[in-house]
Amino acid sequence: MMSWRCVARARAVDEMLQEPSTAFVLVTTLQRDAVNETRFFADRLHDLGHDVDGIVINRVLPTFTTATAEALAARAAAL
Fold this sequence. Notes:
The chain is α+β, with helices and mostly antiparallel strands. The protein is built from three helices and two strands. A two-stranded parallel sheet has the order 1-2. Helix 2 links the parallel strand 1 (about 25-30) and strand 2 (about 50-55). The relative contact order is 0.13.
């Protein structure tokens, strides 16, 4: 049986999640399963009346150049 402290804490968390200032930001990777799970969770949040305010995609590195490694090495050697 849950103690009154656990019940009170659960109610406080529930109230916080209902506040308009609460934002849901989901974090995922570009792996297919992770994207599918994120979509599923976003849909469940929507079903409960919550908006997803953002999605962060981890493990994605930007492309800074289209030059090959050899071309970059030659350029570095010329410096």
